[in-house]
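Hi there,

I know you've been waiting on this one. I reran it after we fixed the sequence typo, so this is the corrected version. Both the input and the resulting structure follow.
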Amino acid sequence: MKTNKKTTLGLAALFGLAISYYAMAEVNDIYAKSGVTIDDCVIEGNRVTITYTPMMETLYYSPGIEYQVMDERVILSVVRCPIKKECAVDSELIAQNGQQHVVSLTLDKTYHAGDLFVHYAGDDMTLEGEQHTEAEL
């Protein structure tokens, strides 16, 4: 395949723009497994309500969770945000009782508990406690 100088420069510029875009995209920090406890998960049809307790910190708080659906699995991440910043989340807190936080999300279809995974900083596990590695997802 023969390429000319303009094509090579154009591809390099496009690649540079793509890298710049992803570098500028804000990525939220998430809790490590040692920093949050999933207390309860209730699934009613396509609505999932999760109660969790983040580690008590003076410089961070949890505004809610982010989630994504990949290969018929729902991957949940508990967001850890600096107190002087607002972090965008997919599902904001609907209630807070002391340290317990409650979020509710409506999914595109009904999932079972075995399809819900919490992604911690460093590893993953289902809400029922079955261990999984990131490579399995």
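Quick highlight: The first helix runs from residue 5 to 24.

Best,
R. S.
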